[in-house]
Amino acid sequence: MVKKIASRVYMGLIFLFLYLPILVLIVLSFNNSKSKVKWGGFTLDWYIKCFQSERIMSAFSTTLQITLLAAVISTIIGTLAAMGISAMKKRNQTIYLGATNIPMLNADIVTGISMMLLFVKFMNLGFVTVLIAHITFNIPYVILNVLPKLKQTNKYTYEAALDLGASPLYAFFKVTWPEISPGVFSGFMMAVTMSLDDFSITYFTKGAGVNTLSTMLYTELKKGVKPELYALSTILFFTVLLLLVVVNINSNQIPVSASKKPARAKKLRIVKRSVSIAIVAVLVIGCFSVFTISAGSTNNDNAITVLNYGKYIDESVIDSFEQETGITIKYEEYEEPEEMYTKYKSGAIDYDVICTSDYIIEKLISEGEVNKIDYSSMPNYQNVNQDIIDMSASFDPTHEYTVPYFYGTLGILYNKKMADASDLNTWDCLWNGKYKDNMIMINSVRDAFTPALRTLGYSINETDTAKLDEAFDILNKQSSDVLAYYVDETCDEMVAENAAIAVCYSGEAAAAMAENDNLDYIVPKEGSNLWIDSWFIPKTCKNKEGAQEFLNYICGDEPAQLNFEYVYYASPIQSVIDNQDAETKENEAINPPSDMLKNCEVYRALNDDDATLYNTLWQRLKSD
């Protein structure tokens, strides 16, 4: 009795561990409050907003297309392959089955990277590469479901049908197909399930503007958790659960003759067939619907591929640009400048316009990877403040390659109720232990090393190995005090007062301060980084005319104002500066005064050896 109770408790704890997080997510999807800990009443608003979101619906469209196409094609190929394997001798069967099982046993990330490297050699990443990848990893699952059914069939019945004059095709559909169809359907549904929620392989093989629900969810979560994402995750969970239930019901069906209750078995078959037909019908109708909806955009050859930081442009600016110019934007995001550099240098996607940090642009210019801009075709470029253009000379000395977008500083955002402003006038506050488990550090290589280097009295562009090791040592000691390493999430966390201080960009600080009066921003007296993010046209650009038109549009007064209000960073556009009210002009997070900038430096480009050293130390820090 005790053993039985212990066994049940043990199983209960396992299920609790596995499904409690999902249950919490489901509950939050119906919570009328954005808070994770406070119940604000029942609501379906997040589900409504989920279906109203163009981003989510676009990802749903792509997911549905890839899922159905990959499932159908892999089912056909997998079924034919299973028939071929079943006809082989036992030794050959073992060899081929071992080969088909490797993709299932292999880590998804390894499969994704290897496919990306293969595709890059022959084509640009995009919808087709994702589809091929999904077909490839689905085929083994189809074979695994169909082959056992083929082994259960009586081949002599098929041969008898041939002897009686039936054609091979007729004999197959009349004799073999009824026997293997449950396995084929199970294989199809398994392929649908695998494609529907795949992330790793899709992430590495997708191109610009191609997002499935899983990759879109990942991108959005990096910007901060939104209730709409709870709703989307809940829908995904129940969809996959339903598909798995159908697969298992189908694979465990009981033959009518073996059943003690033929009537019940008949009803069960009717239910299974009805559910199966309904699911397939939804997939087919949905796929053709989204194909029709998206036909206009996918057939538009006049497009540009844009790469930008996350949460760094008002989506309405993209929409209005597309409406006014007829140019479609394929928009991609990244989190760190080093991530952007890796993405670009991989050659997987031909980007037309990129926005990134000053030191990365300097590096790319030195490598001959940047096209000169024809400013004469950009009448709105005259809107850019000349002082900001002059500041760009540190990375674009000839002023031929870049268009300034936003600028600012790196400093400390703090809660006046939870932190003492007098402590924060020096970077030492990050190491005094006073803010243990109450401090957010920035999740970026150069930016994380800046406070450490300035604390030690070194330049933020330091490349001496011994000095960088010193900086690493104090960062490593500090890591146990850090609550989290964030970039885009910092604003939401500080507004929610989940931390006392955070090292962040001035724009993130300004946005947070606008939502919570208890927050303020400071740049410690030792100095910090003065950064200028700019647009440039890379050598991979295929539509330079469209790229120039986009840059000209971004410099327009109205788009610049919208972007400023959305991002809340210091804008170089003169009209935006002139339109600021007195409070905004006095906000040091938006308009850093000269005394704040006197000890600040602009990042300089690192050579490959120095960049490798920084990245190695950063990886060590994050893994310790």
From TrEMBL:
Keywords: Cell membrane, Membrane, Transmembrane, Transmembrane helix, Transport
GO molecular function: polyamine binding
Keyword flag Transmembrane helix: yes
A Pfam cross-reference name: BPD_transp_1
TM region positions: 9-30, 64-83, 95-119, 125-144, 229-249, 270-291
Cellular localization per UniProt: Cell membrane
Coiled coil: none
SUPFAM superfamilies recorded: MetI-like, Periplasmic binding protein-like II
GO cellular component: periplasmic space; plasma membrane
InterPro entries assigned to the protein according to its UniProt record, in alphabetical order: Bact_Polyamine_Transport (IPR051789), MetI-like (IPR000515), MetI-like_sf (IPR035906), SBP (IPR006059), Sperm_putr-bd (IPR001188)
Source species, domain of life: Bacteria
Membrane topology, from the record: Multi-pass membrane protein
CDD domains: PBP2_PotD_PotF_like_2, TM_PBP2
Domain ABC transmembrane type-1: 60-247
GO terms of biological process kind: polyamine transport; transmembrane transport
Record-linked PANTHER family: PUTRESCINE TRANSPORT SYSTEM PERMEASE PROTEIN POTI
Stated family: Belongs to the binding-protein-dependent transport system permease family. CysTW subfamily.
Protein known as: Spermidine/putrescine-binding periplasmic protein
